[in-house]
């Protein structure tokens, strides 16, 4: 460790915080200095923490040592106090009758992707755990292909051998969809990170699935474009994973979902066949739109290996307003005024409650930019356009209106990049702050906007003192609530009080139990709260047709047949 310049947080601490950060280690700091969480925190606070577009690749290089050392790896939950309980034990899951990896299988993989097969148990640990530290598998093998042909060979072989496979991108998912449940082979897209082409006229980007979102955004920004989505985990999430989970994020209000911006994709099916639908056409009305099957399928129908995506022009002017509101009714009314007065330049409308603000202040030492006693609710509004003077005039008129009408208690405006990033950090790092508050029960809900915060209030009243914190924040512009409940540790009794209450409440108001995170492992059995039996049955038939042996990301997305 002393000789390395970059250490990926998730590799050391199983993603104890959002894995979009890196630490630059200076001379004298070795692995011994990180023997405890306290020493890690001291280091984290005393040295600069930087976002990095290349940290994942450098870690990959560090981890190529000793591929076949200690090949025997047993699935056990007694590895240490920091270890996350095995998913199979915590949730009582039974392993399906897949084959076990043999030495002959390892020899084939080494021949197919030479030098890119990882079997060392210590190296595999971070890939077996989600970054929220809620689920853990015990995979014995991690494969790192570089091209779709290698993915094809791997899946063809695994299908013949009945070996289960878990595709994995940046492993930033929130529902346990990107890590094994048992000993599934992990198929990482980390080395599939090449830009294939970019059209500077149309703004169409074609790239491999393992490209990191932030890296892509930096690439297209150099040519005066931006990516159509932006996420808190952009420093480590992969575009293929974004598409596979139909990730939403903070730009959806302006640019729409990936179902509209993804023009084409390439995917490898379970039997190894390559489905090339990598079109770069805005219009193509020939037959069924097959790419939509794979967008949001969470790796259960095929492994996405390349994507064609439409990028919007980079705005020439950007502004962020951070406002305090006295009630959620005022948050909603401010949104109505915002849409009417800002119109075409409105790019984001986010909200968070005062409990969220207290958490980022307490755990991350971020400052509330609004002085005084605080507000029950906060709103972050972003505008982006092509004329700075025009945008500033519209924004000032809007702020004057909402302040004079009493909808907004206080506010601040940022126009330079440093201040804009500081304001966005208050919203984007809430998830990180929650992980420092204890075990987190996370719910990603779509609801009619007028009902959005009622669920938080009702949940808070229901749980009382049994929960440490019950907070709400999210993308109000598209009706997406992130409801989070924290406790000192995982408690089954608390979970029983939360579920199915939250899902029943959501279904009562015709909402969705997963707005943008997907179903993964943790929510697959609850799909019936949002989808009718006929729809789920048809999904299962599609899965059976494309993956008859069920080797692709088993135990995820769809409920066990006969369990409803």
Automatic annotation (TrEMBL):
Main subcellular localisation: mitochondrion
Record-stated family: Belongs to the FAD-binding oxidoreductase/transferase type 4 family.
Origin: domain of life: Eukaryota
Cofactor or coenzyme needed: FAD
GO molecular function: (R)-2-hydroxyglutarate dehydrogenase activity; FAD binding; metal ion binding
GO BP field: malate metabolic process
Enzyme class: oxidoreductase
Keywords noted in UniProt: FAD, Flavoprotein, Metal-binding, Mitochondrion, Oxidoreductase, Transit peptide, Zinc
Keyword Plastid: no
Name this polypeptide is given: D-2-hydroxyglutarate dehydrogenase, mitochondrial
GO cellular component: mitochondrion
InterPro entries: FAD-bd_oxidored_4_C (IPR004113), FAD-bd_PCMH (IPR016166), FAD-bd_PCMH-like_sf (IPR036318), FAD-bd_PCMH_sub1 (IPR016167), FAD-bd_PCMH_sub2 (IPR016169), FAD-linked_Oxase-like_C (IPR016164), FAD-oxidored/transferase_4 (IPR051264), Oxid_FAD_bind_N (IPR006094)
EC number annotated for this UniProt entry: 1.1.99.39
UniProt catalytic activity: (R)-malate + A = oxaloacetate + AH2
FAD-binding PCMH-type domain boundaries: 134-314
A Pfam family: FAD-oxidase_C
Subcellular localization: Mitochondrion
Functional summary from the UniProt entry: Catalyzes the oxidation of D-2-hydroxyglutarate (D-2-HG) to alpha-ketoglutarate. Also catalyzes the oxidation of other D-2-hydroxyacids, such as D-malate (D-MAL) and D-lactate (D-LAC). Exhibits high activities towards D-2-HG and D-MAL but a very weak activity towards D-LAC.
Classification via Gene3D superfamilies: 3.30.465.10, 3.30.70.2190, 3.30.70.2740, Uridine Diphospho-n-acetylenolpyruvylglucosamine Reductase, domain 2 (3.30.43.10), Vanillyl-alcohol Oxidase, Chain A, domain 4 (1.10.45.10)
């Amino acid at each position: 460790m002393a000789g390395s310049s970059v250490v990926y947080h998730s590799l050391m601490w199983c993603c104890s915080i959002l894995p979009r950060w890196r630490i630059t280690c200076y001379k004298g700091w070795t692995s011994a200095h990180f023997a405890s969480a306290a020493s890690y925190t001291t280091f984290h606070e005393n040295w600069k923490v930087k976002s990095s577009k290349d940290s994942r690749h450098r870690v990959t290089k560090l981890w190529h040592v000793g591929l076949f050392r200690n090949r025997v790896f047993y699935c056990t939950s007694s590895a240490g106090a920091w270890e996350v309980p095995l998913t199979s034990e915590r949730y009582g899951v039974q392993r399906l009758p897949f084959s076990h990896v043999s030495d002959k299988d390892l020899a084939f993989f080494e021949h197919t992707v030479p030098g890119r097969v990882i079997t060392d148990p210590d190296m595999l640990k971070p890939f077996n755990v989600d970054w929220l530290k809620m689920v853990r598998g015990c995979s014995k093998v991690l494969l790192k292909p570089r091209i779709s042909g290698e993915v094809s060979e791997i899946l063809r072989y695994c299908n013949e051998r009945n070996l289960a496979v878990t595709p994995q991108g940046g492993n930033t998912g929130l529902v346990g969809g990107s890590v094994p449940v048992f000993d599934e082979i992990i198929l990482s897209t980390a080395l599939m990170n090449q830009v294939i082409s970019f059209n500077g006229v149309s703004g169409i980007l074609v790239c491999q699935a393992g490209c990191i979102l932030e890296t892509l955004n930096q690439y297209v920004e150099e040519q005066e474009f931006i990516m159509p989505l932006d996420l808190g985990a952009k420093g480590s999430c992969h575009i293929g994973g974004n598409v596979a989970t139909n990730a939403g994020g903070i730009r959806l209000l302006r640019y729409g979902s990936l179902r509209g911006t993804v023009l084409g994709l390439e995917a490898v099916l379970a039997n190894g066949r390559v489905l090339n639908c990598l079109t770069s056409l805005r219009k193509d009305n020939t037959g069924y739109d097959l790419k939509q099957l794979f967008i949001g399928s969470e790796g259960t129908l095929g492994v996405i290996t390349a994507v064609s995506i439409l990028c919007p022009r980079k705005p020439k002017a950007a502004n962020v307003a951070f406002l305090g509101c006295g009630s959620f009714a005022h948050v909603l009314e401010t949104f109505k005024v915002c849409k009417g007065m800002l119109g075409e330049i409105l790019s984001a409308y986010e909200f968070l409650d005062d409990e969220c603000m207290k958490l980022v202040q307490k755990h991350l030492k971020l400052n509330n930019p609004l002085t005084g006693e605080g507000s029950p609710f906060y709103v972050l509004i972003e505008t982006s356009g092509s004329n700075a003077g025009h945008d500033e005039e519209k924004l000032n008129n809007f702020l004057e209106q909402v302040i004079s009408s009493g909808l907004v208690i206080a506010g601040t405006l940022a126009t330079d990049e440093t201040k804009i990033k500081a304001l966005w950090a208050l919203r984007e790092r809430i998830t990180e702050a929650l992980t420092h508050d204890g075990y987190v029960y996370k719910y990603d809900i779509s609801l009619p906007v007028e009902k959005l915060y009622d669920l938080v209030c009702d949940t808070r009243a229901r749980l009382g003192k049994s929960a440490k914190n019950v907070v709400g924040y999210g993308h109000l512009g598209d009706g997406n609530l992130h409801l989070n409940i924290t406790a000192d540790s995982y408690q089954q009794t608390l979970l029983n009080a939360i579920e199915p209450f939250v899902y029943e409440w959501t279904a009562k108001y015709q909402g969705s139990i997963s707005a943008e995170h997907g179903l993964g492992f943790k929510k697959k059995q609850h799909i019936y709260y949002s989808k009718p039996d006929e729809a789920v049955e048809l999904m299962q038939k599609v899965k059976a047709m494309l993956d008859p042996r069920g080797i692709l990301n088993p135990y995820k997305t769809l409920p066990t047949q006969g369990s409803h």
